[in-house]
Structures are given as structure tokens and as C-alpha cells.
Amino acid sequence: MHRSGSGEAVDLRVRDEGEGLPVILLHGFTGNGDSMSGLVSPTTNRVIIPDLIGHGLSPAPEELYLYRMEAMVEQLHQLIQEKLDEPRVLCGYSMGARLALSYSLKHGQEMSGLILIGGTPGIEDQEEAADRAANDARLAHGIESKGLAEFVYYWERLPLFATQSHLPDGVKRSIRRIRLAQRSHGIANSLRMASTGIMTSMWKDLESLETPTLLITGAYDKKFTVLAERMERAIPSAHHVPIPNAGHAAHTENPVVVKRCIEEFLRKL
Q1: What is the DSSP string of 93-128?
Q2: Is there a domain that residue 168 lies in?
Q3: What is the domain range of residue 22?
Q4: Nearest in space to 73 (alpha carbons), one of 140, 22, 171, 2
Q5: Among the listed residues 258, 259, 260, 263, the one whose alpha carbon sits nearest the alpha carbon of residue 247
Q6: Three-class SS of residue 17?
Q7: What are 26's strand-pairing partners?
Q8: CB 48: neighbour CB atoms within 10 A?
């Protein structure tokens, strides 16, 4: 059982295989552990992939506070304490990247490395953050009132994911299948409470992050590439790699190159 700071159990579904330096893969919003499979080989590393709260086969409780980023950090920490007694690498995509960064800033002494794919430390401007939180709350209400299918139709047509229109049909079907298999209230609660607009901005904390960090963005993802370039300047031991022919989900759109970058990073740790 993985407990929140309040002591309530959140029994995350976890896949754990392989041996070697542990790498924990954290999926993005509307994904699950399968969304990250194949990024790191269990023949070279121990690979641990949880379904995050409200996603996949992990619990989707009604208590909203359990979906906040601070609570997710605690859930991840409890999972790690149960499974590992050695340093580890966190690799997260989008929401998973925000979780990985949040965890590393709090538990950096336990880390060997950090990999962020399409990540952000949050929103500095309070008015912009409030607007984002309000918009995510409206979307969450829409999921609850109109259903998950309508939301997925909207979500996959966001400009952020426009570059995925060129993915093979089988890959697109797999992404849609994972999204449609989610539970409406779990996804709504995650969107509402783990919103970038609600989480505390971590920009001012980046200079204290001593963990070797790999920042990955798709070259077509201009917004997050600019953010990664700024993060590279702020984090003492960070290196940014833009991935060609890829947008926000670089690991899905150009998996061969992303996997190679991750393998090179892990070999140097």
C-alpha cells in the first residue's frame, strides 16, 4: 500500500521487471504504464512503471486532495521506499515529468538521474496560473457531465498534439484505446487537482537541483523547447536534446531517437 501524507492508502498498480540501475517511468495525463513501455530495456536496467493515481488500473478515489502534485509525490515516495534501497532514475513525460521534477526537488539525495520529456516547472505568473486552473476545472466538469469519449475527441485534436496526426494508424489507435479505457471521475479529478495552474511553480528551485538531468523535447514543440532551454540554463547539470520530427510526445513520435538519447544518458551515470 502506498500512503499519502494523511495516511490514506493509494495502492498503485506497478510493473517491475529487469535488473540493474532502477529507472522509474512516469506517464502523462490520460496515459498509463503502457504509454511508457519500451523506452528503457529491462535487459539493461530495472524498469518500474506505475499507473499514476486515477489512471490505468490504479485507484481513482473520490478524495480530491489525493490528486494534488504534493500527494502524488508522497505516493511515489512510498512506492519507492517499498521497492528500492538504492539510488534511482526518474523519467517522466508531461504530467509525469512535473511529478518527476517535484519528487527530485524534494528527494534529490536519492536520485542518480532525472529525465524530463515535455516537462515544465510550472507557471510563474499568478494570473496565468489562475486562468489555467479555471480552464482545467471547466474541462474536468465537462468530462463528468458529457462523458469521457467527447473529452478524448477534443483532447486528441488540441494543437499540442497536431503532429501526432502523422503517426501510424496502429499507434494512434493504441493511444486512443488507453485514453478511452480511463475512468471519467479519475481523469476529471487528475485534471482538476494536478493542473499546472494549481501546482506550485518550481522555477526558483531549479538552481538547487544537483541531479544530472536530461531534458527532451520534440523540435516541433516550440513552447516546451523554449521552456527546456531556459531550464537547461537554470539547472546546474542539465542537458537539453531537441528531438527531430517530433512534437510534444517525443517518445511516441520518434521513439528510436528518444530511446537512444536515454540509453546514452544512463550509460554515463
Answers
A1: ETHHHHHHHHHHHHSGGGEEEEEEES-------HHH
A2: no
A3: 14-123+200-267
A4: 2
A5: 258
A6: strand
A7: 92
A8: 24
pLDDT (tens place) for every residue of the chain, 269 residues total = 444 444 457 999 999 999 999 999 999 999 999 999 999 999 999 999 999 999 999 999 999 999 999 999 999 999 999 999 989 999 999 999 999 999 999 999 999 999 999 999 999 999 999 999 999 999 999 999 999 999 999 999 999 999 999 999 999 999 999 999 999 999 999 999 999 999 999 999 999 999 999 999 999 999 999 999 999 999 999 999 999 999 999 999 999 999 999 999 999 99
CA trace torsion 253, 259, 265, 266 (10° rounding): 140
The residues, any chain, with a CB within 8 Å of residue 187's CB and separated by 6 or more, are: 29, 30, 54, 55, 143, 148, 151
> Which long-range contacts does 134-143 make (Cβ < 8 Å, 24+ apart)?
134/197, 135/197, 136/191, 136/192, 136/195, 136/196, 136/197, 136/198, 137/192, 137/195, 139/191, 140/188, 140/189, 140/191, 140/192, 141/188, 143/184, 143/187, 143/188, 143/191
202 class by beta-carbon count within 10 Å (0-12 exposed, 13-18 middle, 19+ buried): buried
Domain contains 144: no
How many domains in the chain? 1
SS (H, E, C) 37-53: CCCCCCCCCEEEEECCC
Closest among 49, 44, 45 to 16, alpha carbons compared: 49
Task: Tell me, yes or no, whether 170 lies in a domain.
Answer: no
User: Which amino acid is residue 93, in one-letter code?
Assistant: Y
Q: What CATH number should be reported for the domain holding residue 251? A: 3.40.50.1820
DSSP state of 229: H
Residue 71 lies in a domain: yes
C-alpha span between 194 and 184 (Å, rounded): 15
